[in-house]
Amino acid sequence: QKEVEQNSGPLSVPEGAIASLNCTYSDRVSQSFFWYRQYSGKSPELIMSIYSNGDKEDGRFTAQLNKASQYVSLLIRDSQPSDSATYLCAPGGSARQLTFGSGTQLTVLP
Amino acid sequence: GAVVSQHPSRVICKSGTSVKIECRSLDFQATTMFWYRQFPKQSLMLMATSNEGSKATYEQGVEKDKFLINHASLTLSTLTVTSAHPEDSSFYICSAPPAGRWDEKLFFGSGTQLSVL
Fold first, then answer.
1. I need a labelling partner for A51 at 20 to 30 A (CA). Which of A36, B9, B37, B70 fits?
2. Hey, are the CB atoms on B49 and A97 less than 8 Å from each other?
3. Cα gap A90→A94, rounded to integer Å
4. What is the band of A95 on the pLDDT scale with cuts at 50, 70, 90?
């Protein structure tokens, strides 16, 4: 079983819509979760971190965490073409190495 | 915020040559650094964990004699791709957790695009 699984892409949404990205993880020890955004040819950049069950909002981004279900999601409201990128989910601190999901490629269509 | 500087950003070399990539933590001590490789349209694959003052830990399938890692100080880790071949062409990225805190976010270098002719 993979440690981190993300919803398969690519995902396309029209500009202004809500993009929903999902991630499940297998390690019950994980206490922190991070969403990174990666543009083509660039290194990942952190966009959200979440540590507690529930929702965390930051601007147009909302992360949701459910530790019992081992599920974390990222919602992007009012999606913009500049949000088009690959989004990586990563639990932190649960293993010797920090593992990344395969990523979900998001395309926001103008 | 914390910054990880990675150089060079792009390198083109001939097959058989060696290439060194540097990763520096600019305003924090990085006792640990991670080295990743990313092929087009694929996710980051952890190659090795670099530990200051000790040997690096390599992931399964990664040749330690080909990918030499040195972490001689708390702010510098280097990856040397020895006798590079076209199949080594990839995007190499380093990252570090601040102050060795594994539960915290990673700070990434800007990446090195290696092209081996």
1. B37
2. yes
3. 10
4. very low
